[in-house]
Design the sequence.
């Protein structure tokens, strides 16, 4: 931006500075010229004096008047500026001298035509002049040579210096007078201009402050006077404009008041309409929520009792009718779930959880859940997880499972024959986050380019014929797309008509670095496994999994080609092959048979697992050779105390039936108040609680259970007819460990029981008439059963050692607490401590302590105080274990 200067500064710079520069330059020029003229004048005077002296000296030297010559020289010293005078003969011999001594002259270069030489030195001016013989009366030279000698005169510069300083002084005085005159002149100008400017500035400030009754007058008739008149005219114009503006404002205010009254009426009408719309939207949301809850609750009963009936011995048309009822209920449940999720997406009310998720386990559970539908169409389901994909992430497992379920179920629906493949890969990864891509590829009917444009629209499918043939609401992909976008990811589809489709979505998720690995998959590294699978895709998936564990896989073309020398073998059979007799394989390792109908396998020595198989169950089968124990009727939790809380009697009956099949006699409560009351009186191993209940809902009841009573650390599983919790963090804050959406199927219940409950601690029944056991020391039970430790840890020595070590480390402090509670007669505390010790015993091989703890717990449930011998037996067994620990080294025992 160009810099602006004020009037005073401009006058000073443009007026005074040029005059000052001119004065200084002119003074310097005049002084320098004067000094040059003075120096030239002094030099001419010296030359004239030297010439005159040479003429006079010629006569004196010719007549040999040396005395007169000396007098003349002394007289010459009186000339101003003369310092010394010397007379030399033609041989440069000094004849006469006056003044300070001087060196003899240098006469080289002097001639008759150039009779003198001037030497301007720093201190003086020396002039050498030739002395010629005087002319005769006829005008001729009397001496042929023409040179009688030389005159040398020395002039000092002090007179010149004096003149120089006088000139400098005069120039300085002149310059000072010039500056003073300029300052006086420009001060006068600045004063007048500043006065006029001040008048104009004050007038301008008064105008800007709103004063209009003023007249500006600047005398002189110059430009400032004209500017003052212009300001007066501007003031008058503003006064006129203000009057007009005032009139316009009054008119505008009048119009505005009328407009505001109209707007106020409209705003009232809009507010009423908005309230009606909000009320309608709230009513719609509440209607959907309540309706879904009311619909899902009877659906829970329909599905539950259908499964119970299907487990009974019914055949023919009755079984077909029950299966039709179950399938219809499942389809209806799917439609309701889609509508609810779509409604939540539209309302923007989805809240995502952030909890640890095992990627492979989540994908396998999805495929296992959808496997029956694929098995009916004889489709192969295969899962591939890239090696650099993180094992665990932090995300919403329910939403991830929902997205995968929708995509895989769509792939199964629109694939008449062939395969459905799920791929999980990691494209980008850093220390804390990873970008994961989920792909679902099928070999189904595919889509055209036009169909792909409409595939993610609401209630849209490929075309009307697809809807008629395959059914569905057309909301599944819309819901997946909405969930992916809400989680900040991308989704897309690649498809060609008649050649299948590939749906994919990618998400950037946090990596869970604290995930625990309960199995050492590398323990099978280096072992060989013979694999047969009639499906190349599923066989490739199993091969990829086994090679990830470090196993050497030998693919076989047929069952008869199985290598009997391999450490293990895996037979993946289709429906026809499952019915065929299998060859007898003599081996020490595990022989695992994968089939879609593993529950119907013959009683042989092979390990039969459902297909598609979970990687954990496959590892356990290869590592321990355990048989398929996934069904509830093969699990026993007879000594487990379970509380179920639900306000719906049908739901209580279904849960009770499922739990009784597992050997559990549950305690029932119909609302949260009863649940809290039960939890204050009794210690449970597991609690199932409904969310929506009268008097006290499940969240509030769980919070009270955690705050007081005997079940502050008991696992709580929430059940709800809603598809997903409104706020997952709210459940965790209330102390709820797990959330299940109704209807709860048998597989979900099995997983919950296996995760939170220990196997039965019941002792085998004894025969009163059996002979007494031998009292020999070798026949007495030992405090620690190593075989049972390994069996409970599924043949993992490290885990068995760690579990036993943790129990032994807790026993000293626990013994002290038990004794203190018994001595102070705190029976509730004793019950809680004994119950916790019972749970620990069920995970380790300590049969004597387990028996004593179970007997004390039964006595505490029946009466309080307990019998002294039963309590003493528990303390005795603890002492035996502590003594056993002192005598044994755990590392050596489990090596």
Sequence:
């Amino acid at each position: 931006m160009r810099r602006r200067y004020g009037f005073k500064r401009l006058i000073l710079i443009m007026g005074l500075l040029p005059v000052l520069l001119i004065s200084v330059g002119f003074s310097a020029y005049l002084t320098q010229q004067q000094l040059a003229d003075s120096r030239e004048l002094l030099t001419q005077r010296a030359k004239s004096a030297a010439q005159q002296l040479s003429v006079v000296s010629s006569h004196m030297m010719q007549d040999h008047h040396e005395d007169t010559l000396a007098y003349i020289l002394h007289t010459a010293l009186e000339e101003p500026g003369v310092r010394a005078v010397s007379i030399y003969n033609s041989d440069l011999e000094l004849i006469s001298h006056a003044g300070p001594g001087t060196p003899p002259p240098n006469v080289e270069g002097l001639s008759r035509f150039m009779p003198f030489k001037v030497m301007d030195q720093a201190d003086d001016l020396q002039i050498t002049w030739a002395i010629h013989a005087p002319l005769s009366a006829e005008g001729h030279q009397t001496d042929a040579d023409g040179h009688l000698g030389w005159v040398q005169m020395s002039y000092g510069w002090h007179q010149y210096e004096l003149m120089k300083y006088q000139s400098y002084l005069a120039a300085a005085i002149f310059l000072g007078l010039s500056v003073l005159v300029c300052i006086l002149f420009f001060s006068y100008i600045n004063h007048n201009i500043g006065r006029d400017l001040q008048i104009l500035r004050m007038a301008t400030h008064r105008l800007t402050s709103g004063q209009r009754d003023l007249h500006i007058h600047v005398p002189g008739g110059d430009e400032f006077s004209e500017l003052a008149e212009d300001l007066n005219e501007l003031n008058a114009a503003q006064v006129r404009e203000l009057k007009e503006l005032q009139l316009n404002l009054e008119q505008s205010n009048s119009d505005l008041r009328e407009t505001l009254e109209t707007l106020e009426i409209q705003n009232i009408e809009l507010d009423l309409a908005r309230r009606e719309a909000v009320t309608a939207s709230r009513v719609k949301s509440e209607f959907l929520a309540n309706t879904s809850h009311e619909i899902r609750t009877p659906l829970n009963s329909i599905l539950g009792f259908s499964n119970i009936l299907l487990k009974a011995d019914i055949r023919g048309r009755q079984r077909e009718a029950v299966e039709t009822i179950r399938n219809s209920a499942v389809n209806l449940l799917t439609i309701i779930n889609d509508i609810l999720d779509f409604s939540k997406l539209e309302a923007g009310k989805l809240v995502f959880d952030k909890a640890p998720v095992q990627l492979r386990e989540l994908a396998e559970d999805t495929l296992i859940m959808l496997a029956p539908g694929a098995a009916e169409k004889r489709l192969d389901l295969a899962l591939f997880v890239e090696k650099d994909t993180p094992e665990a992430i932090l995300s919403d497992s329910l939403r991830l499972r929902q997205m995968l379920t929708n995509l895989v179920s769509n792939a199964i629906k629109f694939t008449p024959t062939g395969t459905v493949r799920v791929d999980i890969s990691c494209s980008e990864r850093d220390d804390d986050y990873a970008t994961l891509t989920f792909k679902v590829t099928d070999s189904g009917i595919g889509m055209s380019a036009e169909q792909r444009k409409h595939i993610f629209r609401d209630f849209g499918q490929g075309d009307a014929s697809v809807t008629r043939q395959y059914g569905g609401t057309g909301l599944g992909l819309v819901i997946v797309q909405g969930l992916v976008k809400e989680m900040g990811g991308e989704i897309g589809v690649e498809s060609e008509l008649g050649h299948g489709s590939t749906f994919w979505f990618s998400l950037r998720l946090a990596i869970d670095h604290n995930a625990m690995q309960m199995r050492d998959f590398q323990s099978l590294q280096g072992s060989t496994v013979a694999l047969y699978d009639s499906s190349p895709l599923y066989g490739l998936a199993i091969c990829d999994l086994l090679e990830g564990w470090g196993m050497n896989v030998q693919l076989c073309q047929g069952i008869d080609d199985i290598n009997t020398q391999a450490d293990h073998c895996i037979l993946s059979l289709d429906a026809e092959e499952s019915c065929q007799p299998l060859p007898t394989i003599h081996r020490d390792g595990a022989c695992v048979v994968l089939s879609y109908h593993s529950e119907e396998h013959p009683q042989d020595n092979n390990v039969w697992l459902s297909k598609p198989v979970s990687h954990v169950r496959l590892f356990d089968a290869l590592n321990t050779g355990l048989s398929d124990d996934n069904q509830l009727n093969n699990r026993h939790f007879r000594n487990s105390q379970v509380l179920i809380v639900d306000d719906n009697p049908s739901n209580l009956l279904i849960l009770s039936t499922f739990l009784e099949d597992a050997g559990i006699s549950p305690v029932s409560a119909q609302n949260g108040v009863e649940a809290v009351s039960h939890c204050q009186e009794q210690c449970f191993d597991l609690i199932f609680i409904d969310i929506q209940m009268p008097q006290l809902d499940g969240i509030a009841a769980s919070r009270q259970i955690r705050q007081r009573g005997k079940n502050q650390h008991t696992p709580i599983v929430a059940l709800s007819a809603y598809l997903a919790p409104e706020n997952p963090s709210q459940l965790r804050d209330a102390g709820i460990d797990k959330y299940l959406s109704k209807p709860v199927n048998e597989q979900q219940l099995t997983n919950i029981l296996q995760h939170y409950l220990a196997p039965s601690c019941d002792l085998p029944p004894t025969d009163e008439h059996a002979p007494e056991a031998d009292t020999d020391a070798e026949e007495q039970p030992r405090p620690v059963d190593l075989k049972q430790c390994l069996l409970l840890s599924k043949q993992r020595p490290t885990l068995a050692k760690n579990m036993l070590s943790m129990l032994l480390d807790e026993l000293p402090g626990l013994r002290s607490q038990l004794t203190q509670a018994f001595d102070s007669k705190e029976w509730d505390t004793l019950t809680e401590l004994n119950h916790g010790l019972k749970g620990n015993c069920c995970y380790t091989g300590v049969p004597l302590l387990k028996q004593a703890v179970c007997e004390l717990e039964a006595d505490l449930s029946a009466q309080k105080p307990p019998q002294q011998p039963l309590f003493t037996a528990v303390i005795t067994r603890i002492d035996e274990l502590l003594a056993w620990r002192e005598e044994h080294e755990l590392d050596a025992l489990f090596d």
Q: What stands out?
A: Residues 805 and 890 are 8 Å apart (CA to CA). The chain is about 50% helix and 15% strand.
